[in-house]
Design brief:
heterotrimer; A mainly alpha (about 140); B alpha/beta (about 290); C mainly alpha (about 325); A: about 140 residues; mainly alpha; Arc Repressor Mutant, subunit A; 2 domains; 5 helices; B: about 290 residues; alpha/beta; Rossmann fold; seven-stranded mixed β-sheet; four-stranded antiparallel β-sheet; about 30% helix; elongated
């Protein structure tokens, strides 16, 4: 796979790499047993700092998605997107109902998008403070 | 040229500056500059034109005498100045011979590979090469000398967009293969993401901030919400902008504490390097920093 | 982590940058200036030897000077000891640092594994020693021709205290060459501009030489003083002929006080003129340096230029060692 860094994105470069691997896993471009490109390859082809690539691979390793095998490279351990299709379908139906409600309330696509995004952000923030202490809220 | 090897407790330090100051006549070009650059990093020295980047680099490279403080680099330093100078009557091959004869370590294959990669003719006098080609010869010389610390002053200036990308990639490959530390100066912040992992921000001869890039960006958040006098989270306000009904705050979160959760009408955005740098520079211009 | 896979050519490592490396660099950078001056000097030396051989064989110097209307072979040789130090100053030394600064290549060369001081030491030795050697060669050749020509006559054709005979000795040539080299280098370091540095070097070299040779040399030591009647003076109208150097002469009274030109100009012949002078008690005084002062004078003048050279060299090194700007 080939990585692309969006230099205007606010996301740190290593997180962009992590995301792109997860995306590839989700879309099935990468599967268990596949080898990730070597750090050197990524550096040469994408113009990314080796430390950044290493950091991304370490992150993926910590989350259990890949494993580094001594001397032979980094390999995909587990796949993503293995959510039960029935669960997926149920979630989708409920979301469709919610979207209809939102439209009836006068929101257009952009409004809905902004709303979803803000909820996601808040949720991500909440997940990061796992200790649940020392949280400063307005 | 080489300077004394210094090590500190903990991570190896590649470059260190202690209270560095440099004055041209009465005007200070550099003042109270203190930092340590860990070995193996690719550090970006960022600042507006005239912020003192070149002065700092040439002092660190041992080419300029400081008026105050001290500087040191661990191991052999190679410096490529902004003009990417080469001897005009020398051919590229002569420049490599020059590198082989004037360095304690010389990697001919590496230097030649660089020239081949950018298709630089070996036998033509450098004076007859284009500016971009001359720059490649200067880079090949620096790469071939296998420095422990490579300092590049505006390395990408005067290169076309394609060459900028290729030089960046090649340079980072060299860093990966040799493990050298790189300090590069630039005023084009947009190209740094993913390239640099350490930031030194210079304004008016003073170091505003320095440290691990991801860490710095992670410690800063941008909040946008209804007009308000204070941001939704505690921390140092780097920048505050207000319109009639909206406020945007750039907040430096306190160190060692978990990231706060903001809710309600506030939208939290991760910060791009460019946002961060511009906000910092803006703040010095307004004199807002205490 | 740093294992290299470069293969064919191994990474070269060594303990230091040697003189051979500096010699390569110096030759590669300055080969045209070096070759030009050495070729010119070699031509002058060869010409001088041919002329010496001819003068010695024929015992005659006729035709050597003024055979061609504007420039003669003999004057080329005689001019060389004067011009060599100047050429070294302007063409060898003045561009050395200035060109590096101008083209910013000082940042390249001093970024390699060599300190500015070591680099400059290399240039000074590798250009300075050949410069002195060239000057000594030219000095010896010109000296040989001066001696040969002076031997053809019982009075010296070339006054030994005056240009070019005074300069045409190895020691004085060494001093001029060293001074010229240091002067060019110092202007090079201070101005950082090639053409400006060459121009200033040219002017300053000529200026210092003129001041020392014209104003200071006659006063290296207090001249001897002698007063004699006009008749006695007239016998040696063309100078003393014993190799001494007359620096001043004129009319005086018996006590040696200078007097105005006496009113004897309307006498009919030499005898009447001499009588008129005697009648008016007008004598003739001469201030001169005897011939045995020649070598001390040459030593002293060499010392002046060598001291100046040392000072200028120190200035150039100080500029390079402690860079105040880049």
């Amino acid at each position: 796979m080939e990585f692309r860094i969006d230099r205007s994105s606010g996301l740190p470069a290593y997180l962009q790499l992590v995301r792109q691997v997860r995306e590839a896993l989700r879309l099935g471009w990468l599967g268990p047993g596949d080898r990730l490109p070597t750090v050197r390859d990524v550096v040469a082809r994408s113009g990314v700092n080796a430390n950044t690539v290493l950091k991304a691979y370490r992150e993926l390793e910590l989350s259990g998605l890949v494993e580094a095998r001594q001397g032979s490279g980094t390999f995909v351990k587990a796949g993503l997107g293995s959510t039960d299709p029935e669960v997926m379908a149920a979630l989708r139906t409920r979301l469709a109902v919610w979207v209809r409600e939102a439209r009836e309330a006068g929101l257009d696509s952009e409004d809905i998008d902004a709303l979803v995004r803000s909820v996601l952000t808040a949720d991500e923030g909440g997940n990061q403070t796992t200790s649940g202490e020392g949280v400063a809220v307005l | 040229m080489s300077t004394a090897v210094e090590t500190t407790d903990g991570a190896a330090v590649a470059v260190r500056a202690q209270g560095l100051g440099k004055r041209y006549r009465a005007k200070w070009a550099l003042r109270e500059c203190t930092f340590e650059l860990p070995a193996g990093r690719v550090a970006a020295l960022v600042g507006a034109n005239g912020a003192g980047k070149t002065t700092l680099m040439t002092v660190l490279a041992g080419l300029l005498d400081a008026d105050e403080g001290s500087a040191g680099a661990a191991g052999r330093v190679a410096f490529v100045s902004q003009e990417k100078p080469v001897y005009r009557t020398f051919s590229a091959a002569d420049m490599l011979r020059f590198g082989a004869r004037l360095n304690l370590v010389w990697d001919e294959a590496r230097a030649r590979r660089w020239l081949a990669r950018f298709e630089i003719p070996l036998d033509r006098p450098c004076g007859k090469l284009s500016g971009g080609q001359q720059a490649q010869v200067a880079f090949a010389l620096a790469i071939g000398s296998r420095p422990d610390v490579l300092m590049l002053d505006e390395p990408l200036a005067n290169l076309d967009p394609l060459a900028r990308r290729e030089v960046t990639a090649e340079l980072l490959s060299e860093v990966d293969e040799t493990g050298m530390t790189v300090l590069l100066s630039t005023h084009v912040v947009a190209e740094l993401s993913g390239v640099a992992d350490h930031l030194l921000l210079l304004a008016h001869g003073r170091l505003l901030t320095g440290g691990d890039l991801d860490e710095l960006l992670g410690r800063h958040v941008s909040y946008t919400g209804p007009r308000s006098e204070a941001p939704p989270a505690l921390g140092g306000i780097v920048e505050a902008r207000h319109t009639d009904n909206q406020s945007t705050f750039l907040v430096e979160l306190p160190e060692g504490q978990p990231r706060p959760v903001v809710a309600g009408p506030w939208v939290e955005r991760p910060l791009t390097l460019e946002d961060y740098v511009l906000a910092q520079l803006e703040a010095t211009r307004k004199g807002a920093r205490a | 982590m740093t294992a290299t896979t470069t293969g064919v050519v191994p990474v070269a490592k060594r303990a230091g940058v040697g003189w051979g490396d500096l010699a390569w660099l110096t030759w590669r950078q300055h080969r045209w200036a070096i070759a030009g001056l050495v070729a010119g000097a070699a031509a002058v030396v060869a010409l001088a030897l041919v002329l010496v051989w001819r003068v010695d064989a024929t015992g005659d110097m006729q035709g050597l000077f003024g055979r061609w209307r504007f420039i003669s072979l003999g004057s080329v040789v005689m001019l060389a000891p004067i011009a060599t130090g100047l050429a070294i100053a302007v063409f060898w030394a003045a561009p050395v640092l200035a060109r590096e600064y101008e083209q910013r290549t000082h940042l390249v060369v001093w970024s390699q594994d060599i300190t500015p001081t070591r680099w400059l030491t290399g240039k000074v030795v590798l250009l300075g020693v050949p410069a002195v050697a060239v000057a000594v060669g030219v000095g010896l050749a010109a000296r040989a021709l001066v001696d040969s020509i002076n031997a053809t006559s019982d009075r010296p054709v070339f006054e030994l205290f005056a240009m070019p005979a005074f300069e045409a000795v190895p020691l004085v040539q060494t001093a001029y060459a060293a001074f010229g080299f240091a002067l060019g280098l110092a202007f090079s370091a201070v101005t950082r501009r090639t053409v400006l540095s060459m121009g200033l070097t040219l002017g300053a070299f000529i200026g210092v030489r003129v001041v020392v040779a014209g104003l200071w040399r006659p006063n290296f030591q207090t001249p001897l003083f002698k007063v004699e009647p006009y008749d006695a003076y007239r016998q040696q109208w063309d100078g003393p002929g014993d190799g001494s150097w007359v620096v001043n002469s004129g009319f005086s009274d018996a006590a040696g006080n200078e007097v105005d030109y006496p009113a004897c100009s309307n006498t009919v012949d030499q005898a009447a003129y001499a009588k008129c002078m005697n009648d008016n008690n007008v004598l003739f005084f001469t201030q001169y340096h005897p011939a045995d002062r020649l070598v001390p004078f040459q030593l002293f003048e060499s010392a002046i230029f060598l001291v100046l050279a040392a000072g200028l060299l120190a200035l150039a090194f100080a500029r390079v060692r402690r860079a105040r700007r880049i």
